[in-house]
Amino acid sequence: MSTKPQSFSTRDHALLDEDLDALTAEVSVTLWLKNARDIDWVTRWFARYPMQTDIHCGDTNRLATLAAQDIVVVDAGLKAKRGFSLELLHAQANRQCRVMALCHNQRELARARALPDIEVIYKPTDWELVAQRVGLVAQWLASQRQVAALQAELSQMVTSRATESTQNRRRNDYEAVTGLPNRNRFMELLERGMTATSKAGGSLAVMSIGFARFNLIVDALGQTEADVLMAETANKLTGCLADLHADSAYGQGTRSAIVGQLSTDAFGVMLTWSGDRSTLRRMTNVLVDVLSQPVVSRGHSVHLSASLGICVFPDDARNPDSLLQRADNAMREARRVGGGCRFFAAEAEAAASRKLTIENDLQRALHDGTVSVAYQPILFAGEAQAPAMEALVRWSDAERFEITTEAFVQIAEESALILELGEYVLARACAQLQTWRRAGKVVSHICVNVSRNQLMDDHFQATYQSLIAQHDLNPGDIEFELSERGVLSREPGIVARIHALKTLGARISIDDFGTGDSAIAYLKNLPIDAIKIDKSYIEGLPEAADDLAITSAMVAMGQRLGLEVIVEGVETEAQYRTLFQMGCNGFQGYLFARPVLGDDAIDCCSEGLQTFNNVLAI
């Protein structure tokens, strides 16, 4: 460092710009002088710079105070009663303290030069230049602090941004309720797992886990409580997998297990293992048992019926989407049969694909005219009552699919298509009855089958009223047949909807009577006009004693309740005579007429009436 006073250039002076005050205001400067006569000059020149300046004169023993300052300007010739020296000051000064020594002679100069990082100022002193120099050092120190502060702020921003990015990534990749990977993240992990399995060997299984009636839980307890239940279930699932891995009976072949949440009420599990499917099957049975146990949360004990579908890589599928889709299909098949566990089967997938094709083709058929309505007469004992007709849907492509009417109607009932199909049949039946009556044909009423989905549809009653008004019919001209197997149930709302239809004036009958387990209980609770005994009881008559006894009992019960008793599937004269003698009111079957389209049904009805009367005359 130079031993002579340095001159300051224009550039140096330019550094002392208008921001100097703000940069140097917090810099602490202490000057410890030997001669009191220097104080006035120091005060005058240092007042130009807004530093925290402290001026002292005379010997000092305040070594610690000096060492803690930012800048110390000290006379090297000072001596303290307690052992002050330039060497001690240098030793105790903090790393940021800048020490400037005022040297009067060669001895003082040698002492200062022997110490690193000490700046030398020759005496006699030009205090204006010293003040400028100290000001520049103060500015530099303040600038360094500002840079350090900016670096700290930048570091904090980077850290905050990284934390925010991590949180966003977690929000995007994980479910907030359960903390499990969401569907997208699970699919990424599944793809990685499949790649690793392909390289390392072994097998990988995907499990799709769903729960029946979860929507009912949401409706009853609310979404918040349902979320709590799902979180508890997720804990049970991960805990069970951990226990299975630790169990030597199951865990020796397992390599890894990852659980994800596929939807609000479904989980996915990716499991890699070495071994055969028997171990995997035993593990999944344990999972189903554990997940089907009641979950207790906030005082509620809720039973979740678990269904689990499994698809194995590489045997069943070779890409993540197909693997999970086929596991989902297997899970739905398990749910359809009441729960439990199902492995993916190609036959089941083919059946599902065929069902989807049938549904799509049936949807198109409703618009291109290949769906039609046939009518089969219902003949009544006694000359006073005119025959009725049952409207039966027909589809010309059903033979191409080798599918029965009951089967494609069942497919429609499993989707929203049944609403459109049911409305189509009802509209065609109303139009046909209007056509017959305008032509002078006598038909007492038309029977139309109605599904559960139609009954529960909020627009069904309005559609019924609109159609009978449009075709100038009375409400009682339409009889809605409720299937005992498909419609009558303990589900809330069904009974109220049936009563509402009766209030509107519709006729109500129970179809397939005797095939379910609840019809007798409903007879006293529903506004029933008629029962239709299922043809399965008629086929064995009159020889089958059991069928004869049961049918006779059902007929007697219907009579005592004041109901019309109609029998379906009458195909032989012997059956007809037997049923007539029992006291049945109405008869329907191939003995009298097959279902036929439109106006031809009236001709068949006339021929059926002849058979109806001739058989009894013999």
Topology:
Blueprint lengths: L9 H6 L4 H5 L3 E6 L5 H8 L5 E6 L5 H5 L3 E5 L10 H7 L5 E6 L2 H8 L4 E5 L4 H47 L9 H18 L2 E10 L1 H8 L1 H24 L1 H4 L2 E10 L2 E8 L3 H15 L3 E3 L2 E3 L2 E9 L6 H17 L3 E4 L2 H23 L2 E10 L7 E8 L9 H9 L3 H22 L7 E5 L1 H5 L3 H11 L7 E6 L10 H11 L2 E7 L5 H5 L6 E4 L11 H16 L3 E4 L5 H10 L3 E2 L8 E2 L2 H18 L1
Parallel strand pairs: 1-2, 1-3, 3-4, 4-5, 11-12, 14-15, 15-16, 16-17, 17-18, 18-19, 19-20
Antiparallel strand pairs: 6-8, 6-11, 7-8, 9-10, 13-14, 13-20, 13-21
How would you describe this structure to a colleague?
It is a single chain. Helices cover 49% and strands 20% of the residues. Strands 13-14-15-16-17-18-19-20 form an eight-stranded mixed beta barrel, surrounded by five helices. Strands 2-1-3-4-5 form a five-stranded parallel β-sheet, sandwiched between helices. It has a five-stranded mixed β-sheet with strand order 7-8-6-11-12, with helices on both faces. It is α/β, with parallel strands linked by helices and 618 residues long. The longest helix is centred in the first third of the chain and has 47 residues, at 127-173. α16 (417-438) packs parallel to α18 (460-470).
